[in-house]
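Aim 2, interim progress. The first record below pairs a target sequence with its structure tokens.
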Amino acid sequence: MSIRTTFCVAAIALATGAQGAIELKSSTFGGLSARSIGPAVMSGRISAIDGVASDKAPVTLYVGTASGGVWKSDDGGIVYKPIFDEHTQSIGAVRVDPSNAETIWVGTGESWVRNTVAPGDGVYRSTDGGSKWQHMGLKDSDHIAELLVHPENGDVVFVCALGHLWAEGGDRGVFRSQDGGQTWDNVLKIDDTTSCSDLAMTPDGGTLYAGMWYVQRYPDFFESGGESSGLYRSTDGGDTWEEMTDGIPEGEKGRIAVTVAASEPERVYAT
């Protein structure tokens, strides 16, 4: 008997206690039925989401979860089906290729690094809308906070990776692939204890912003933020990066999130 049913039985018993015992039969609960409410309950936290809009069909949604893989809905979020069960269940990022809606990228390992967090094993790609998946590298990234695809060139992909949480090193920082994930370059790395916390791109794909975060977890302690944390910008598609300091608080900085206003790319928000 489920917990909810147990509570229901207890409530009926309390409500009728003054009138004496009642007989419980299958017909007593005949009007109750279970219904799916999507991946939010059975798969833990929702860690990533992306979608494809169409004038002729409902929105197609891809939802990444903390401990239940990736789910897909073809009817705007009414019904979901799991499409990633044979791979890593901890998901950090999901991204649809803007130039090809059948190409889906998944960065595994959720980025909300509690002491019970589960790591991932890198990046995956599907070229048929999520039916089949191929591992595309960065196995030691462990936790991926963001994954971006160039709006016009689907071969150019950026990954914001945390690396090893419980130790130094791993695939850590901002990575770029220019050949559809066949090879990766670590285009922004500070050191072996500073991770990428977030990544944003302007609508034309030319300028990127990255939050870099000193983070280290121990069994009984969590170090977050330090002198190596900061906000960085690249205006040449990831070739070179500069730290942004004008207007940014001095000293140690914690985890940084950043986003670009799509309607006004010169407007950037960071927290």
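The second target in this work package is listed in the same format:
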Amino acid sequence: MCSLNIQLDAISSQGSLALPPTRTRWEKIDKALYEQVVSECVSTLKTESGSLGALDAEISVLNRILVGASEKAGPTRIRRPRKAKLKTWNEDIKQAIQSKKRAFMEWKMADRPNDCSNILVQNKKLTTTYLRRVCRIEAATRREQERQQILDAKSADMKQFYRLVNKQRGKLRYCVNELSVDGEIYKTENEILGAWRRHFGSLATPTDHEEFDEEYRQLFASEMLDIMDICSSKQGHDSHPDESVSQQQVKEAMESVNRGKSADIHGVTIEHFLYGGEVLLQKLTGIINTVFKFG
């Protein structure tokens, strides 16, 4: 026997599990209804491009409209209580369950004897043990098959490969209990976020470390100044009437983005824009031109 003296922090261990937004299944969404809802809401959205703050607010409202429209056009889920069931199943498990039920019924009809030497008690225990064994054998076989599927899918279908990897990782893949940065351990949610920010902030800060690429930093700084100069020169939008972005350009840019990707922090994907219709395309083109106007 081993005796351990430890302290359990109930608050930190029961912290909220930060799950990503629910992925929108566009193959199950009524796209005609989605376009209709988006068009109705976007047509009533006021365009206020007098300041960057107003533009930011307009974009936030547009994000909420797109996410809300996809939820309305999606299928209605009916949640039913799920019954406990075996994760694995084959013919051997089926026969083992039948044998276990027969043994249990015989033991029950004999007025539930408790004597370990009784043949009915022994038979009930043996059938239970056998059922557990065949379940473990089948589970191990399936794990081996899933590993092989991952190896085969990695070279053939990367989408299937990542789906299988996530299935293997389970629900705890979104849970971070602690984070180690520079030898210090951070456990609470705020501490982890702060340590994460400091760590990646230090990666972008010039340092005297021998492996720091000073030449790349100077190149990056030069390109950043060039981009700022270009944006500044375009702020006089009225003096460049022919340089506004057209709806066709926006449409072609949207169609060039890969689909089926994860949503951003607002829950928006490229499909939200692709299936939004002509009214959304007009609104998006105006927003992009306003962004260019402010540089």
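The beta strands are 179-181, 184-186. This observation will shape the mutagenesis plan for the next reporting period.
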